[in-house]
């Protein structure tokens, strides 16, 4: 029991608690903007009998790109700027964060997502919160999972590359690169899966929106894609990449 307590002690250090708070704030910021942009687009196209057009997809993609860039930037030096359970899972698989801390990250991220969606629903006088899961009839759940998995693979691979210290001064563009690839993926997949790549985003909107239809797609695909990205980058492409000074590495005493 004492050994277990000592191994879990790093999860409750002041630095670890600050990391959880940073993840909560940054995830709230991202989901608020991402879901808010979808609600705004929905409001503008409410009277359009033809339904949403491509301009709404572009607007949502840009909002996601900007919001994710900022969310990663503001928390990168505290928690690593995961803002996404899939990213946290990819980092855990790569040994950059312990399993207990990754669970706490997940809790912070999902609570933040639910809170952001609740704030939007209350502030907009009960506007319907858009949920992921509306998959075209010609697609299967397996195909949607593959699409989400591939996009999350690219996203997490970009996160690993963006945090690579060998890039020197170019590393400052890391958060922007992460946001841009997320926006690009949404443009590529918006009409098919909604371009989530983030289980917390999908979870929060599902809870507040009241629909868990096809929800497994937004966990299975992203988690598998994230795990493959982490293993591939650290063990195949750049096997010497991992180091204790990695900004996305959480040390044993809880410091990031």
SSE blueprint:
Blueprint: H1 2-8, H2 14-44, H3 54-75, H4 85-93, H5 99-123, H6 141-162, H7 174-189, H8 199-209, H9 217-237
Helix pairs in contact: 2-3, 2-5, 2-8, 3-7, 4-5, 4-9, 5-8, 6-7, 6-9
Would you give an account of this structure?
- With 256 residues, the chain is mostly helical.
- The chain has nine helices and no strands.
- It has helices spanning 2-8, 14-44, 54-75, 85-93, 99-123, 141-162, 174-189, 199-209, 217-237.
- Helix 2 runs parallel beside helix 5, helix 4 packs parallel to helix 9 and helix 5 (99-123) packs across helix 8 (199-209).
- It is globular.
- Residues 241-256 have low confidence and may be disordered.
In short:
The chain has helices spanning 2-8, 14-44, 54-75, 85-93, 99-123, 141-162, 174-189, 199-209, 217-237.
For this entry, give a set of tags:
transmembrane helix, mainly alpha, disordered C terminus, transport, 64% helix, single chain, MIP, MIP_CS, 256 residues, 9 helices
